[in-house]
Amino acid sequence: MPRRMTPSQIRSAIRQARNKQKQAIDKHNREVRQRNQKVKQAFNTYNNEIRRYNERVRANRQKIATELRRLKSSTTVRHEVIHTSAITLNNCYEQLDAGESSLESSNYGSEFLDLSERENANSLALSNALESDTEESNITPSDLLRTEIEEMLNQLSPDLSKRWRGALFSLNPQNPDAARHFCTSAREVFVQILDMNAPDENVLALNPSSDTTSSGQPTRKEKIRYLLSHCGLMTSEAADFVDEDIKNVLALFRVFNDGTHGSSGKFELNKLMSIKTRVEDGITYLFSISQHAKPSP
């Protein structure tokens, strides 16, 4: 027969049972509070991201509207190549924006549209900056060396990161070969990002009827199509915009060379900074596309 419990033992057992029950309830309540806190934090983070995204969109669209009005109201144009390229890129962006619904199904679609909008705004702003006669600036030569993409490029290739750093070191108004050095290095960064992430053989394997150069290599636009297809963003509007964006930067290199060695003279520090920022953001844009492209099968 089971041993009978004394009144003291019964009271002790009841206290232990109550304590265990209380501990279980406290643990449950604590886990609920922690779960609710995490949900609240996630909700706040999501709302903050949406808020920041909307702020960027409003800022970019306002910038585009302002810079486009300023560009179209120009009575004299000194850098016709950049002016025309900026207008063309804006037209491509309007077509891209009109078809945004076809891109938003991709996980990368919203970010791609956001970055494309920034590229268009930057292009228009730079064209206006190059036409401006304003020379006052608090920019120093050391400011031209600051960069936010060195580590990003290092992920792809340490050599590419060093090449960009070398391009910035050459970007000095006192350097008579600034344009040649900067343009050569910066152009190579664009070429290498495309070649590393869209190898010729992979592009041709995906589309054997790809347009090719005279040497039989896929064209730049075919490489862009390859990357966009692996991002789930392969539309003609997307390919046209990305290709035109790179053309816009390459056109800038031509003007920059003329500005250093030609009749227009050297660019002031504020214009050099604008050029550097435009190229840097263009590299970031192409890098972002390449990193979101799915691995080749």
Description:
The chain has 297 residues and is mainly alpha-helical. The protein has one domain (57-292). It has helices at residues 7-72, 80-98, 109-131, 150-156, 158-170, 178-197, 200-206, 220-230, 236-261, 269-292. The radius of gyration is 28 Å and the shape is elongated. The N and C termini lie far apart (73 Å).
Largest sheet: none
Helix content: over 70%
Low-confidence stretches: 260-265
Portion of residues in beta strands equals under 5%
Work out the radius of gyration. Answer: 28 Å
pLDDT averaged residue by residue: 84
Number of helices: 10
Order of helices and strands: HHHHHHHHHH
Highlighted features:
mainly alpha
How are the elements arranged and paired?
Elements: H1 7-72, H2 80-98, H3 109-131, H4 150-156, H5 158-170, H6 178-197, H7 200-206, H8 220-230, H9 236-261, H10 269-292
Helix pairs in contact: 1-3, 2-3, 2-9, 3-9, 3-10, 4-5, 5-6, 6-9, 6-10, 8-9, 9-10
Please summarize what this structure is.
It contains ten helices and no strands.
